[in-house]
């Protein structure tokens, strides 16, 4: 299954990485590697993440790469990475609907 990043997810992941790089560059690099490995694995195991508790929809799922949530949608032929959100930020359903 193909995995694609939405423009919003790309921006949010970049912002998260930038914040982490200022404080702890080595930890930020390790976090990015974990995120990319987790997202890559979704190509073979698209339902490996949990359903997003705020939505309870089978097609919208998330993998956790603390302190961030990587939210994605499973379509018939692809996985779309929708956004990357800090766990402390309030959930915003507008980032995953559409």
Helix amount, in percent? 25-40%
CATH superfamily: RelE-like
Strand order of the largest sheet: 1-5-4-3-2
Give the number of DSSP strands: 5
Q: Determine the number of helices (DSSP H or I, runs of at least 4 residues).
A: 2
Give me the CATH fold name: YaeB-like fold
Strand content range:
25-35%
Average residue pLDDT: 95
Task: Estimate nothing, just give the exact number of structural domains.
Answer: 1
Q: What can be said about the biggest beta sheet?
A: 5 strands, mixed
Instruction: Round the Cα radius of gyration to an integer and report it.
Output: 13 Å
Extract low-pLDDT stretches.
Answer: none
* Amino-to-carboxy terminus distance: 21 Å
CATH architecture: 2-Layer Sandwich
Give descriptors for this structure.
5 strands; 98 residues; YaeB-like fold; 5-stranded mixed β-sheet
Characterization of the model:
The structure is a single chain. This protein is an alpha+beta fold and 98 residues long. It has helices at residues 7-23, 25-41; strands at 2-5, 50-51, 60-65, 68-74, 78-86. Strands 1-5-4-3-2 form a five-stranded mixed β-sheet. The longest helix has 17 residues, at 7-23. The protein is globular and about 40 Å long.
